Amino acid sequence: MVKRATTPYHGRMNNENTIPITKVLVTGMSGLIGGVVGRELSQRGYEVSALNRQDVSGYPTTRASITDADAIRPAFEGIDCVVHMAAYLGPADASQLSVNIEGTYNVYEAAKYAGVKRFVFGSSGATQMRYEVDEPFLSMIEARYDDIPEPTPRVYHSSPPRPGNMYGVAKLAGEAMGRYYSETHGMSVICIRLGRVTAENEPDSPRNAAVYLSHRDAAQIVWRCVEAPTDVRYGIVYGVSNNRTRFRDLEHTTKLIGYVPQDGWTW
Amino acid sequence: MVKRATTPYHGRMNNENTIPITKVLVTGMSGLIGGVVGRELSQRGYEVSALNRQDVSGYPTTRASITDADAIRPAFEGIDCVVHMAAYLGPADASQLSVNIEGTYNVYEAAKYAGVKRFVFGSSGATQMRYEVDEPFLSMIEARYDDIPEPTPRVYHSSPPRPGNMYGVAKLAGEAMGRYYSETHGMSVICIRLGRVTAENEPDSPRNAAVYLSHRDAAQIVWRCVEAPTDVRYGIVYGVSNNRTRFRDLEHTTKLIGYVPQDGWTW
Asked: How far is A91 from chain B (nearest CA, A)?
């Protein structure tokens, strides 16, 4: 059951506190999350284009793999903001590192050369997934609601990394790159550790209900990043819906970018 | 001037609290640090072999690049402990990511398949180098001794990563891999954020005097990692000498592995 919250849905913010952004490039827009957030940004009035291996219907697309540093460069001309969602989700192998680390490096480099002002990086909860094997999180994610202590324990973005797989390692590398580009090249970078988004918009297990991220909340958290205040130079935020067994912190997310989930799942 | 400390130099530890280690594989042993630590381990009685692109005189060498996952595998047969010092120190480019990230992944994978018990990873202070652009560290590293507050401020391994370059990003990725292999494959992993080691065994600037690591201290910190207690399953430690303007924390290093620097530089 998705609980509908009463959070008001703000109109697009455009004032002296936000970076002037008109043109947004979305990588991986043929993917589930890339599609959801790309369409949302388009509806909010941004000029959205795609960097994608295949054409994205309805959007100007530069067809290239992010592993090809030269081929992707033209996509970044005139771009104010990059939303980098392209990722290789397969098993750990050379392809995964090539796409998720070298590809991400190529995207940051191209953004830097194009003078991109803000970079939104699609990171993942896989960066800290191993907390889930320890209590109290283990019981929580098995939806033993009676066992949830008050106050509810959380995993914080600032806790030590505990990647659950090489995908999580690659995302940590992408976050670290973001810090580097933010500090040395003046590009504002916000990394979202995204929860589980499914085509059906429903979680398929107790564990995935704990980290569920609805389409609507995924769309919101990305535009919140795009429209976050200019003085947000670097940040890592968790992005999940307000699920009953949620163990990922959202206080920092709300504080940094104003995100308040509208949805939440109770398994 | 190198200050000689009075720290006793312990003999090789071998008791019920340490992992039984006989055979140690050193990667990058033709390099400065790899050579220093490889010779030290050999003198302490370990059977040291090398994984290196070129032959390492006096040591059995498997000649291969760590970027070649298949070619390096034979080097790991029967190995108890890996000391991974091979790294690409050139400018940020595809080679750097390939060697420092994919190569490191290949080394971890080969170690996992060979049943290696302990993995010592040569990380770098580049992972947090951007702290140096802020006070109070900025003044300290310029050797303005009068400006050093008491107690002396430190950068801790647990502070958020602030890589100064893509080399630092790659080392953060290698540390995160270590955590992953430690938690999911039972391999003990200790990452050393090494300071500046020079062929002359002297720093060449005030900044490098702050992060100076003598040959003797480099040798010590690595054998301390090899001989650290069995229950050390994962750790990140700073490795520098006890320099006058030292801002990198060593308390955690001493606590975790017993390292106490014998040297220290005053510029």
From this structure: 14
Interface-testing mutation among A68, A124, A179, with chain B (most B C-beta atoms within 10 A): A179
Structure tokens that stand for A49 in this block: 């284009």
Provide the shortest C-alpha distance from residue A163 to chain B (in Å).
Answer: 6
- Whether residues B176 and A165 touch (CB distance < 8 A) is answered with no
pTM, rounded to two decimals? 0.94
Q: Which residues of B touch A180 (CB under 8 A)?
A: 130, 163-166, 168-169
Q: Do B168 and A160 touch (CB under 8 A)?
A: no
Q: Do B163 and A179 touch (CB under 8 A)?
A: yes
Q: What is the pLDDT of residues B174-232, one digit of tens each?
A: 999 999 999 999 999 999 999 999 999 999 999 999 999 999 999 999 999 999 999 99
Contact flag A130-B173 (C-beta cutoff 8 Å): no
- Please tell me whether the interface predicted TM-score (ipTM) of this complex is above 0.85: yes
Task: Provide φ and ψ at A82, rounded to 5°.
Answer: -110, 130
| Per-residue tokens: A172 | 């940590």
**Mutation site for B-interface testing, chosen from A93, A107, A123, A172 by largest number of B Cβ within 10 Å:** A172
Predicted confidence (pLDDT) per residue in B232-263, tens digit: 999 999 999 999 999 999 999 999 999 999 99
Check CB contact of A185 with chain B, cutoff 8 Å. Answer: no
Cβ-defined contact of B179 to A165 (cutoff 8 Å): no
Place of tokens 């291969």: B64
Q: Of B162, B164, B180, which is closest to A166 when you measure between CB atoms?
A: B180
Lowest mean pLDDT among A84-98, B46-60, B64-78: A84-98
Name B62's bridge partners. Answer: B51
Sign of torsion over alpha carbons B266, B194, A164, A232: positive
| HEC string for chain A | CECCCCCCCCCCCCCCCECCCCEEEEECCCCHHHHHHHHHHHHCCCEEEEEECCCCCCCCEEECCCCCHHHHHHHHCCCCEEEECCCCCCCCCHHHHHHHHHHHHHHHHHHHHHCCCEEEEEEEHHHHHHHHHCCCHHHHHCCCHHHCCCCCCCECCCCCCCCCCHHHHHHHHHHHHHHHHHHHHCCEEEEEEECECCCCCCCCCHHHHHCECCHHHHHHHHHHHHCCECCCCEEEEEECCCCCCCCECCHHHHHHHCCCCCCCECC
Is residue A165 within 8 angstroms of chain B, CB to CB?
yes
